[in-house]
TrEMBL record:
This is Trans-aconitate 2-methyltransferase. It is an enzyme of class 2 (transferase). It comes from Sulfitobacter dubius. InterPro entries: Methyltransf_25, SAM-dependent_MTases_sf. One of its GO terms (biological process) is methylation. Residues 41-130 form the Methyltransferase domain.
Length: 239
């Protein structure tokens, strides 16, 4: 593992979330479609399992198969849901999911593959009537500031809501509904992250200090420019 990845996982270990989100995101997505009472659900790139509880609550008789390729995320999620027989945790790559599902949920990780590529890959794993719900970085203005553009430079495919819809259609899907993630969803991620940064500052080596500084700058940029960029939650189904 490279030094920067070691620093990343040091910072992100033991966080409740690996990206913006809240239970109402799951509830909203489920309300947009008619899913079976015993729906099979995939939580793809589940991180430490932050959305598993909301998925279970939204579809109480459903079964959640949650997967992530990072071992300690899977171990953390297993610890949270070890007693729930309707949750299965797997160490697996989101690019090659197996089995068939009524709902594929992916919070903040589709960009690793690209919207069109991810939806195209996952189509074979959707049952008839199944949908994908995913959140993706999104411009909220036609004229983002230089600061916002610099912060989002690592997302070269980032577009506005219309651009995301175009990528959905390119995969042979239609958009069922969209909504922008709330400020509360962001604070659910950033507030614990700030506490983790404060804890790690004393004794941090140079690589970790760079990671902490960059993350603090990311948080500050979002707070200053939250009206310019965010995450768009999209529910999409094959056509």
């Amino acid at each position: 593992m490279t030094d920067d990845m070691t620093a990343f996982f040091t910072l992100h270990r033991d966080l409740p979330r690996e990206g913006p989100g809240e239970p109402s995101d799951v509830n909203w997505a489920v309300e947009q479609v008619d899913l079976p009472a015993r729906a099979e659900i995939a939580d793809v790139a589940c991180g430490p399992g932050s959305d598993i509880g909301a998925l279970r609550a939204a579809i109480p008789q459903g079964h959640v198969t949650a997967l992530d390729k990072t071992a300690h995320f899977v171990d953390t999620a297993r610890g949270r849901f070890v007693a729930d027989s309707n949750v299965t945790l797997l160490r697996a790559d989101m690019a090659a999911i197996a089995n068939e599902y009524d709902l594929i949920w992916c919070a903040g990780a589709v960009y690793f593959l690209g919207v069109t590529e991810a939806l195209s890959r996952w189509r074979k794993s959707l049952r008839a009537g199944g949908v994908v719900a995913f959140s993706e970085p999104c411009w909220l203005t036609d004229a983002p500031s230089d600061e916002a553009r610099a912060q989002c430079a690592d997302y070269p495919a980032m577009s506005d809501a219309d651009g995301i819809s175009d990528r959905v259609r390119a995969a042979g899907y239609e958009v069922v509904a969209t909504r922008v993630l709330s400020e509360e969803a962001w604070e659910n991620y950033y507030t614990p992250l700030e506490a983790r940064i404060e804890k790690l500052r004393p004794g941090a080596d140079d690589e970790l200090k760079r990671m902490l500084d960059a993350t603090e700058a990311e948080i500050a940029c979002w707070r200053a420019h939250r009206d310019e960029f965010g995450y768009l939650l999209t529910v999409a189904r094959p056509v």
